[in-house]
Every structure is written in structure tokens, then in C-alpha cells.
Amino acid sequence: MGQLDHTLPEGEQVRGVTFLAGEIYLLREKDRDQVEVYDVITYRLQRCLTVPDARNFIDMTSCEHNRCVYISNYNVKYVHTHTHTHARTHARTHARAFNGPLSGTTQVSRYQKGKTNLDFIGARDSEWQWHQLGHMQICTSFQTNNHASTPPLSFLQAGCLICRPTNSVKALKANVKYVKYVHRLDVQGAVTQWTVNDAPVGLSVNAAHNVLVTCPRVRKIKEFSSHGDLLRELTLPDDVIWPLHSIQTRSGQFIVCHGNPDNPVNRVCMISADGRHIVHSHGGQRGSDTDQYDGPYHLAVNDNEFVFVADSDNRRVTLLSPTLEYVRQVVSRDQLKGAPWRLYLDTRQRLLYVAVNEDEEGEWRGYLAVFSV
């Protein structure tokens, strides 16, 4: 079992952690100063860097060769709405683009269950239910308090609408344009970006110093150059549902974690270099046993190609062999004050950085835990 070495202060939700040029980079969900840079020895904050005009961050990785970090996010750009009349009720319906935690200003005054033509897709998060109509997603609330929790990660990755009618919820027609970016941030703080065209989630850098972007909705791994040139796309096997993060091994194969609480299968897979075949796998039906996962969100791989898995909803980190056989729990539930979302492994110092987040009465808070492994 890993030993807790240090923690960085609790603050806004932590969406990524990486290491560059002897410093720790921590990505938080806020409007500015999102990237906090810490000294690796003293753990003191050195400076903050801003990714301008960006929210809804997903992940972060780094490249020592190109001396930069990469950050994935999406931005909602346009929302168009109009009133829809149903039966004899005329409800003026408002909508806005989701861009952060929900509050009482976006609540629904009354929801008439069964009288909408929205398709419920089964995801529920505390007080909020999420619905999908075509390419549109709508949130309706059953609560009357003034705060609600942040929506599930799968919806943050897709972009959402929140509707607030003055009467009952009937229907909402809207067009949403949201742009999915990877940002390149060098050590001097200069920022460039490129679009991915599919919602980007997990990021990693391979031996060729290219960026691997995992896109869950289309089951693809996209490989980009350091400056955003698309080099290739790999479509993963049909049963690799909702891939969240991928890492390429020295042999060219890919380690991929996939599944979330809405998927019956949660696994870690080794995929062939062409992306077509599963070579090895660990996991299966979602659960809490040692051979199961409940939200395998992120990966790290050491020099011997042992695999660390952030098993988010089980609140633990699992170690697998290079052929994806169970070895042990590296970090247990008792050692964390929340769910592990992101990992970074310092192979030289044998330190595992774990980004931990917890929903505290409707507000997400996060911190960084450092374990000796």
C-alpha cells in the first residue's frame, strides 16, 4: 500500500495534474489562474497561469521534450431558444449555456412528469435529472433549495442546457454550438489551441512526443502533433464503450480505461496497435470487488509498464501487471477524502500524484494527494 507523503490545499475542483521541468502543475476549474505551479520539493505555490476564455476543463498532461502542458476542454458558444406551446399551457421557456456549478437562478418551478416529450436517459445526480432530445440535453430539478450539485462528468464533457420555465416544463428547442479544444501552454505561459471536433477527455503523450486525445462518444483515439496537426485516428472495438483515457506502450499497443456508472461494463483494456483488437483486459461488470471497477477514469504507467488505475467511485487506485492482471490496491478508500479523478506518476521519485474531488453539499472541492509507491 502506498504511503501518504503530502497533500496540497483544498480548493476548486481539480481536473488535472502533471509534472514539467521540476515543477508540479495542477489544473483547477475556475475562470482564471486555472493552472497552479508548485515546487516539487517544498510544495510551495510558485505562480499561476491562465488559459483565457476557457471553462469546463477535462484533463491535463505534459511533454518534457516540447516543454509544454496540454489541457482539454470544451466551450459552449451559442444558444438559441424559443417558446414551445403544449396542450393549453403557454410557458415562456428560458435557457442558458451551462458553464459552472448550478445555483437557484436556474431552477425549475414545477415539473410535470410524463407530460414532456423528452427522452430520459437514466443519469441522475443529486437533485437534478438530465434528459436528451436529439442533440440537446436538458436539466430539470425536483428541489426547491437554492443550490444543486455539479452535473455528472459525462454531461460536462458533452455540454448541457438548463431550462427554467415560469410554468411547467413542456419542451425546448435549441441549437448549441460547443467547441472542443486542446490548449498548449508552454513554460513561459504562452497559450495556443486547436479544435478536436469530438469531445476530448483524457490526454497523454506518446514516445514520439505526440498528443493522444481520447474521445468517448465516438470511441476514438486521435493523435496530434505538438502544434495540433491531426496525424491519425483510431476507432476502438465496439465493446469498448465510453473510453476515458489511453496511454500508448513502448510496443505501440494502447492501455485504455472505459466505462462509467451509466455503463454495465467498466474495464481496463490493452488494445492492439491498430486499435482493432483487445489483447488483454481487467474488469467487467461494474462493481467493487478487486476484479471490478466503478468509474475507471484515469491511468498511469511506470517504466516496467505496470498500470495504475484511478477507480473513481470505488475511491481507490489499483495496480495491474503489464498483462493487466491484478497486483494490489496502491491507494485505499481510507486514504482518500473523495474520489480519485486524475493520476500522474513520477517514476524517478516513485511518487504517485492523485487528484481527489468530493461533492460537499452541492459544491465540488478538490485537493492533491501525493503517495510514495
Layout of SSEs?
Blueprint: E1 3-11, E2 14-20, E3 23-28, E4 35-39, E5 45-49, E6 57-63, E7 68-82, E8 84-86, E9 89-91, E10 93-97, E11 119-125, E12 128-133, E13 136-141, H1 153-158, E14 161-165, E15 173-186, E16 191-195, E17 203-205, E18 211-215, E19 220-224, E20 230-235, E21 243-248, E22 254-258, E23 265-271, E24 278-285, E25 296-301, E26 307-311, E27 316-320, E28 326-331, E29 339-346, E30 351-360, E31 363-372
Parallel strand pairs: 13-14
Antiparallel strand pairs: 1-31, 2-3, 3-4, 4-5, 6-7, 7-15, 8-9, 10-14, 11-12, 12-13, 15-16, 17-18, 18-19, 19-20, 21-22, 22-23, 23-24, 25-26, 26-27, 27-28, 29-30, 30-31
The mean pLDDT is 77
- Distance from N terminus to C terminus (CA atoms, Å) equals 8 Å
CATH class of the largest domain: Mainly Beta
Count of β-strands: 31
- Return the CATH architecture of the largest domain: 6 Propeller
Describe what you observe in this structure.
The chain is mainly beta. The protein has two domains: 3-76 and 179-372, Neuraminidase; 77-177, no CATH class. Helices cover 2% and strands 54% of the residues. Strands 10-14-13-12-11 form a five-stranded mixed β-sheet, with no helix packed on it. A four-stranded antiparallel β-sheet has the order 1-31-30-29, with no helix packed on it. Strands 2-3-4-5 form a four-stranded antiparallel β-sheet, with no helix packed on it. The protein is globular.
